[in-house]
Amino acid sequence: MIRRATRQQNRSSKHAVRFNNHLLTQLPADDRDLLLGGAEYIDLPVGHTFARTGDLISNAYFPDNGVISIVSEMTTGHQVAVAAVGAEGVIGLATLFDLAQYSHSLIVLVESSGFHLSADRLRRVFQQSEALRRVTLSHVGRRMRDLATATACNRVHSHRQRLARWLLLATDRAGQQSLPVTHEVLAQMVGGPRHAVTVALNELRVRGAIAHLRGRIDVLKRSVLITQACECYVAPAGPVGP
Fold this sequence. Notes:
alpha+beta, Jelly Rolls, Arc Repressor Mutant, subunit A, six-stranded antiparallel sheet, 38% helix, 23% strand, globular
């Protein structure tokens, strides 16, 4: 269930509101206010399905924190995570490119909160604001690069390397070093069988990079995890953990 958060977008003090979403922080205050006029600040709990494959794109969501997994569903019933969205991005972007439906399911992996607005408003402000167009198209370019990298990564790197890379990316996006994830979810994220993920988890645990409890993974030493990840991981600027 979506919970409306207590934080409100008060028009009399909106310039003072602190934004964590990277796209929103890049917008001039006036453009951002125009975009978020009438937006709600909502909480999305772990496991919440934001959208299913084929759903109409009626809303957009700018996460301030948390992680939302983009999941592809095969006709065989298998599910594979193809990407994730955190405070670096936005959900509902496809509506800007005349796509009316979601091509993947969107499931909350790490509890998230952020700004929820209509897709119509996003399209309208995108047409009016040069700054929003610039920021959005730059983001699309990065996403295309990341998807190409992930495709190559899944093809040539080991399950341990891919798991280490995914854990680093997920904790970067979530802004925390603990993730509530199961073996089944990790198999979707890494794109491998559960037994291979279990072996990879044990390898990382033995090296002291993580602690693995039932339904949760704690990153203990990011520096070690980085050495175990493949070349596809690019660390963000600035310190993010031990």
